[in-house]
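User: Now give one protein:

AI:
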Amino acid sequence: MTGPSTSVAIACAILLGTAAAHGMDLQEAFQSALLQDATTRAARAALQVGEERINQATAQLYPNVSISAGYLRNNLDRNQPDFPGQESTVNDRYPSKNTTLTVRQPLYRKAIAVLIQQARAQRDDAQAGLQKETQNLAVRVTDAYTQILLARDQLGFIEAQKIATTTQLDAARKQFTGGNGTRTDIDEAQARLDMALAQELEARQQQGFAERQLALLINSPVDLVALHPLEVVRLTTWSPLGGSMAGPSRGAQPRIAPAPGPPRIRAAGREESPSRAFANAGRRGPVEPERQRERYLTGNALSQPHHWCAA
């Protein structure tokens, strides 16, 4: 009888075996690295911050709704003469309450418009940074992937070269033993074999280095046998950003409209700021205890900030 831990281990082994059988191509390697790379994730987080700043700046243009309410219990004693002229005490006990609903809609706020422009410029800068980091990651993944494939092809070529050189060395030794060859032929064949062994060692070192680089990028072990070869037609049109590989990236283009700085925001804050206000106030008190009185107020407000200090 197997326990839960054994079942989980068997399921993980099945998944790993399926993944290894499926293999991995360049696009899958890039997608895995895109999820694991810390620099790219930080750039995506910066882009999300930029989008949130735009929402926060735009929210200041929405109507501002406020409501207030109050409730009091009044106990009033009054001493006053009655009709015959005698003093009498009148006790009034009544509740009083009031509610106020205020809706304020800004009509024109240049400071908010400048803040929105600044937030959009910062968002565009963060988006350009994300594209730049994405392209840099694509270059690193492609370099490691192609280095592994190149080393694998070189090892196959060197293996065939070793077989041919070994055959030539055996033939040279047999000819020398039979008296038809020379010692120079044996030495040359041995030198070619030693050169092939050195090239094999160099190719294996390059393959191991590229394998470790790709494993670090995708944060997963790399199966060298399961790597798919590159398709030339697809490689010429593949782009990590989904578009053409031609042309400079957005991050390399010069900024045409720079983001407004604090001096411009302070200057915009000194301008007049008209707004539209609507208020609905209801009150019930001692004047009309049995009825509720409502007042509707609508008006425009114009504020002009005054700054006594130099900006």
Q: What stands out?
A: The CA atoms of residues 132 and 235 lie 20 Å apart. The two ends are 79 Å apart (CA to CA).
